[in-house]
Design a protein that fits this description.
Elements lengths: L9 E2 L2 E9 L3 E7 L6 E7 L7 H14 L10 E7 L2 E7 L6 H7 L4 H20 L12 E3 L5 E3 L15 H4 L9 H4 L6 H17 L9 H10 L5 H4 L5 H10 L11 H14 L2
Length: 277
């Protein structure tokens, strides 16, 4: 989505000049702190995003931990503000497009796409190592700097610790095309749930079409739970079959059949890239 002029010009102490994007949870603005000159992204949540004041409190507590995150492939979180002007997350401004733009505009390059996936794996592994999940891995949450560095955004907005059970409330805030079967079934989310979502993302990257064709949410959830999509290499001959095999393992219905962690996945992808040189 292209930036647009904002519907407001100040949020708390920040001057606002652009809307960077809009989604189900709120609107993201580009802002500047006039005292420091720092450019930031401000995610202003919809009023109905939070189910209760306890939800707001839980996110504020999580942000205290998120502020400690420091990884080149994870968007930096600076602060959470909640008051009369609404609740907003202050985070690192990333000056490039997201993966939706990349998939629409960039020519096919297998090596380049494998490098992108490796960076996503690095960021996800870091988030998991901190005891959190992303919960919404999808092309719109994979950002690029103008130098091509990947940055994961919009992670762990609700009940982030992976020992928590997923409630119906979380399912309402994930993206249906990318949601893991166990979350649909209201079972425990684990790092393998993020690996499933990344697998759907990689299916789009390398098969160049969605894994499931469904015209209703009910049918889409049925597909996640019961339908094995075509092998990516059968859909797109440019996708090497070993890579398609990796993607199919990532989107196994049973979390135990997926990769153990993102480091293991990244190593498989790296070996695949080297084998083609």
């Amino acid at each position: 989505m292209s930036p647009e002029l904002p519907d407001r010009f100040q949020i708390y102490q920040f001057k606002v000049d652009l809307i960077l994007g809009k989604g189900g949870s709120g609107t993201v603005y580009r802002g500047i702190n006039p005292e420091t000159g720092q450019v930031v992204a401000i995610k202003l949540f919809r009023e109905d995003f939070f189910s209760s004041r306890f939800h707001v409190r839980d996110l504020a507590r999580s942000v205290k931990k998120f502020k400690e995150f420091d990884h080149p492939n994870v968007v930096k979180i600076f602060d959470f503000i909640s008051g009369k002007e609404g609740s907003c997350l202050i985070q690192e401004y990333v000056d490039g497009p997201d993966m939706r733009w990349y998939l629409e505009q960039r020519p096919w390059n297998l090596h380049e796409r494998l490098v992108i996936c490796a960076q996503i794996c690095n960021g996800l592994q870091y988030i998991h190592d901190q005891g959190f999940l992303h919960h919404d891995v999808k092309p719109g949450n994979v950002l690029f700097t103008r130098k091509g560095q990947v940055k994961l955004s919009d992670f762990s907005l609700r009940r982030a610790h992976f020992f928590d059970f997923i409630t119906g409330g979380l399912k309402e805030h994930v993206t249906p095309m990318f949601v893991a079967p166990e979350i649909i079934n209201k079972q425990k989310a684990t790092p393998q749930s993020d690996i499933y979502s990344l697998g759907i993302t990689m299916y789009l990257m390398f098969a160049e079409k969605p894994p499931f064709e469904a015209d209703t949410l009910q049918k889409l959830y049925f597909c996640h739970l019961n339908v094995v999509p075509p092998h990516p290499s059968d859909i797109n001959s440019k996708c090497p079959r070993p890579l398609g095999d990796v993607i199919m393992q990532m989107i196994e219905k049973d979390p135990k059949k997926r990769f153990e962690n993102c480091d293991q996945l990244r190593i498989r992808l790296a070996d695949m890239g080297r084998s083609r040189i």
